[in-house]
Each structure stands twice: as structure tokens, then as C-alpha cells.
Design a protein that fits this description.
Elements (H helix, E strand, L loop, with lengths): L1 H21 L44 E9 L2 E6 L55 E6 L18 E8 L10 E8 L8 E2 L1 E5 L1 H17 L7 E5 L5 H5 L5 H18 L2 E2 L6 E6 L2 H10 L5 E5 L18 H9 L7 E7 L15 H14 L3 E8 L6 H15 L6
Parallel strand pairs: 3-13, 6-9, 7-8, 7-10, 10-11, 11-12, 12-13
Antiparallel strand pairs: 1-2, 4-5, 5-8
């Protein structure tokens, strides 16, 4: 009888804990239903996120997939196993603290918004030896003009430069974007051994962002702050918006089936097949291109600046274009294990005076995406830059080293 009572009490306790872990946190739910976000500042009174405290991704057991295979290393270009579902359950983080307030007003006066999101608890990818990245740097950060360049954004004394190899890629035989040609630059870090699998950062609008990012990579790799990472800097074709802003898997297929194989043979490099080792960067329209590589493909690390998560290329399936990522795609889908996203937007970004109903306000589009990521418990890092314009150079120079280091957290160096 005593044993039976103990079992009953144990069952009741387990049921209560399970119910609590499944209950939504008051600090993580979108609010302001029926209103628009334009009436306030970032996560403001118009209501993207209530941010009233509450743990994000509260409790819950981590995925219990255990381990598969003997290691997560690339062997001859193929992954041989790695941990699956080994992540924590997101019980350690908290939502942005509501007590600190939010930015208010059309210009978005800063009111000390900060805080970290909880871990998603979805574990690592199969075939990856990635460690639990923790939650340091997760959540929302506000920075203010004037912006100050980080030392790692410029060439540093004594730091050896990786190799830059540039070539032209003909699109004549492309299955996806035929016609014309485009410039590709491959960055090869110091110490890389030819034709061995390595992580990669694929950069959209390569000529515009590639040079500064390769400098940052030189400095961070030399300091052992990020892994030895290949870079593939891709210029757009003749229809940049069609390639970048369209919500589909086409650009991902183009990059993985046509660009990467050509870069590998031309530069004698090998891109890892481990999704945790595949990252993408995009500014403006390059951001939804990078997002598509993650959402429809296997790139799990993203960094974006002034992402065009608005409606520039609508379709029957996605009538609101890239706005759909924050509006429908992420909120309504299961969590994509391992996905990690850094995003930034400026208070004076494109369309800052437009209403949400226009689907053409970059600030609101990025806020909605950040709110969706937080609500689902993803690792995300959202930088709100007060006084910044579109893809602001000052913001990039200040934040790229920190963001890139955060992006690669957990990946073996």
C-alpha cells in the first residue's frame, strides 16, 4: 500500500511538471492581436512581444535521441554519425525582461531592452560534433549611434591573411538562373589543408560584403575565436531581387548544386556536409536569400543585416513574400533543430514610416521575425540599432566580429 501511494504521488508530480513545461510562458507570446506594430518602437506598444518576463522555452525534456555513430567528424567528405537530439531543454534562458521596458515612440527611444532567449532544446544535428552552445549573447541588444568600429573589423598587425581566389562563373548552363555570369570569391583561411572538409560562410552580394567579412575572419581565426572557416562570396545575377527575395528552395539548390561544386574544384577546397558547419550571410535582399538556404535547405547558421523580410516578391504560395517568415512560416512550423540566427535592423531603416499593412516596413518585418524566433525558443541574436539606416556600415563595423563569434558558438575550432 505504501509503495502504491508513492507511485501515485510520483505520477502526480510528473504530470504536474510536464503540464508546467508545456504551458506557454507569458513572456514569450506575441501580443497586440488586431493592432499593428507601427504604433510603438521595437517590440513596443503596438505589440510584437509582450516581454513581461517569463522563461522562454520553459522546461521540458531534451530530445532523447541519444547518439548515432562513432563521431561527428567529416571523414572523406561524408559525415559518420554524431549526436542527435542531445540539446538541453531550454530551461536556462529568460525572455527579454519586461521590467526594463521597450523602445517607444516613432523614433524608438531606447529604454534598456536586453535579455537572452532560452535554448530551444532541440539538440544538435545528426552527423555533427557540435557542443551545446549555451545562451550567452542570445536575445535582443540595443546599440546607439554614433557607432564605433570594433578592432577586429580592420587589418590587425601580425595577423596573416587567408587566400582570396576570385573567378567568373558562367550562368549559361545553369538550371536555375541561366544567362550572364557572376563573380565568385573563395576565401581560404590560413592553415587550411587542401581538399579537407571545413565549415563555410556563404555571403550574398559578395563584392559588397566579402572584403570586410574576410578581414574579420582573418582576425577571429588567428585569435582562435571561430573555426577555420572557408568563405564563398557570391555576386547576384541579372535579376537580383528575383534570386534573393523569392521565398523558395531555388536559390539554395543553385548554391549547393552549382556554386559550391565549382568553388571546390577551382580553389581545391571541400565544404563540410554537416549542416552545423554551413553558415550564410546576407544584407538587405541577401538576407531572405540566406534565410531560404536555412529554411528550405541545410544551412543552420545565419547572420543578416537590415533583412528584406518584406513583400518584394510575392507568389501564390507566399503572397506576402519574405514577410511570411515571421508571419507564418516560422510560427506555424515545427522547430528546425540547430537553427541559429543573428539579425539586425535600424530604427531609420527602409520603410520605417510605413504601416504593417503595407508589408514594406523593414523594421517591423525584422521585429516580427525576431518575435517568432523567440516564441519558438530558437537561439537568436537581435540587434536593434538606434539612429541606423539600411545595412548601416557603422553598425556592421561595430558588430560583425561579435556576431560572427556568436554565430559559430559550439562548433569545434
Amino acid at each position: 500500500m505504501l509503495m502504491t501511494k508513492r507511485l501515485h504521488l510520483l505520477f502526480f508530480f510528473a504530470f504536474a511538471v510536464g503540464a508546467a513545461s508545456c504551458a506557454p510562458s507569458s513572456g514569450n507570446s506575441p501580443v497586440g492581436t488586431g493592432g499593428t506594430q507601427s504604433s510603438g518602437g521595437i517590440f513596443g506598444s503596438g505589440g510584437a512581444v509582450s516581454a513581461s518576463g517569463g522563461a522562454s522555452a520553459s522546461g521540458g525534456a531534451s530530445a532523447s535521441g541519444g547518439t548515432v555513430g562513432s563521431s561527428g567528424a567529416d571523414t572523406g567528405g561524408a559525415n559518420t554519425g554524431g549526436a542527435t537530439g542531445s540539446g538541453d531543454a531550454g530551461h536556462g534562458g529568460s525572455a527579454p525582461a519586461g521590467g526594463g521596458g521597450s523602445q517607444v515612440g516613432a523614433g524608438g527611444a531606447t529604454a534598456g531592452v536586453s535579455g537572452a532567449a532560452g535554448r530551444a532544446g532541440t539538440g544538435g544535428s545528426a552527423g555533427s560534433s557540435v557542443a551545446d552552445p549555451g545562451i550567452d549573447g542570445d536575445g535582443m541588444t540595443t546599440i546607439n549611434s554614433p557607432f564605433k568600429a570594433a578592432p577586429e573589423s580592420a587589418t590587425m598587425a601580425g595577423v596573416a591573411k587567408g587566400t582570396r581566389m576570385t573567378f567568373m562563373m558562367s550562368n549559361a548552363a545553369s538550371k536555375y538562373y541561366p544567362g550572364g555570369s557572376r563573380q565568385i570569391t573563395v576565401y581560404i583561411p590560413v592553415g587550411y589543408i587542401a581538399n579537407t572538409p571545413a565549415p563555410v560562410l556563404v555571403v550574398q552580394d559578395g563584392t559588397q560584403y566579402g572584403p570586410e567579412l574576410m578581414t574579420v575572419m582573418d582576425n577571429l581565426i588567428a585569435a582562435n575565436r571561430i573555426p577555420k572557416t572557408l568563405g564563398i562570396m557570391i555576386n547576384p545575377g541579372t535579376n537580383r531581387s528575383g534570386e534573393y527575395d523569392t521565398v523558395s528552395d531555388v536559390y539554395f539548390k543553385f548554391v549547393t548544386e552549382e556554386v559550391i561544386p565549382l568553388a571546390e574544384t577551382t580553389a581545391k577546397v571541400k565544404v563540410t556536409t554537416d549542416p552545423q558547419g554551413r553558415a550564410a550571410m546576407g544584407g538587405s535582399s541577401g538576407a531572405p536569400a540566406a534565410m531560404g538556404m536555412a529554411w528550405f535547405g541545410d544551412f543552420l547558421r545565419l547572420m543578416t543585416y537590415s533583412g528584406t523580410f518584406v513583400n518584394l516578391q510575392s507568389s501564390t504560395m507566399y503572397p506576402h513574400g519574405a514577410w511570411e517568415y515571421g508571419e507564418n512560416l516560422i510560427p506555424k512550423a515545427d522547430v528546425k533543430p540547430g537553427l541559429r540566427i543573428a539579425l539586425e535592423v535600424g530604427s531609420m531603416d527602409n520603410g520605417s514610416t510605413e504601416t504593417a499593412a503595407s508589408f514594406r516596413n523593414w523594421r517591423l518585418g525584422n521585429e516580427a521575425l525576431a518575435a517568432a524566433l523567440m516564441a519558438k525558443g530558437y537561439h537568436y541574436k537581435f540587434t536593434y540599432a538606434v539612429g541606423a539606416g539600411h545595412v548601416d556600415g557603422g553598425v556592421r563595423n561595430q558588430t560583425e566580429p561579435e556576431v560572427m563569434e556568436w554565430l559559430w558558438r559550439g562548433y569545434p575550432k
